[in-house]
TrEMBL record:
Any GO MF annotation of the entry: enzyme binding
A GO term from the CC aspect: cytoplasm
Disulfide bridge partners, by residue number: C173-C191
Protein name: Tetraspanin
SUPFAM superfamilies: Tetraspanin
Source organism of the structure: Drosophila pseudoobscura pseudoobscura
Membrane-crossing segments per the record: 32-56, 76-102, 114-137, 254-275
Keyword Manganese annotated: no
Gene symbol of the encoding locus: Tsp86D
Superkingdom of the source species: Eukaryota
Amino acid sequence: MSNHRYHHGGSYMHPRMSYPHHFTYVSSCVKYMIFLLNFLFWLFGGLLLAIGVYAFMDKLKDGNGWLRLDTVYDVIFNISLVMIIAGCVIFVVSFAGCLGALRENTCLLKFYSMCLLMFFIMEMTLAIICFVFPQYMNSFLESQFAEKIIHSYRDDSDLQNFIDFAQQEFKCCGLSNAGYQDWSKNEYFNCSSPSVEKCGVPYSCCINATDISSGLVNIMCGYGVQEHSVAAASKRIWTSGCIEIVRVWVERNLYVIAGVALGVALLQLFVIYLAKTLEGQIDLQKSRWS
């Protein structure tokens, strides 16, 4: 018997489309690509969280169970806490993406794609501000962070290690345009301090901090340099502030940084597209069942 049907009067009616019983609108390729990408980020988030918790507990033990968290700056400058927060966010969002794709849950996928969209908008906003208003960013960092970071140098071992690493890698000393004189704002390096480090700077500012013959670090190499002029001090230490040095480095490597940023942005947009595509396929499949 023919499946073609006719209305009264002889008009032709297209036969209803039929699909095999096992047919699904949900693409396995899209589904498992989202799952795999998010599984990798889920592992990374878990690792970051574990390292942050370990560092935080170790710091808490060294501080006899006490940790200062009076202001938002105490959280920002506490690297272990930043790692915990970042790890938690990555862990939760990527887990939502994993589970949402694997279980074909549209609520979790909507939450996941909205989080990615928020991250994308925040990143683009920050990038535009940095590239369009670099002098404003310089002034903001110097006014809001420079003095607080210098003041907190010895209060947090993780922050101290990070500052030492940055000063050695970028060959700078201090943060603002004052350069090495920034260290006068630290209670240990201030010239009025009773410490043996008074009028000094951290060893990471020194041009030759490590003795070539012995391989040992001379932590006293920066003692007393604040009393010297820039010309005299420059023979022993780096004198320029790190914010300006980093800005110059960014300008010199602008195309590389822009290329990496563009690649990350396109990857985020691609993953958002995959998530929204999977959402649409799941909704289409549900409508078929109903």
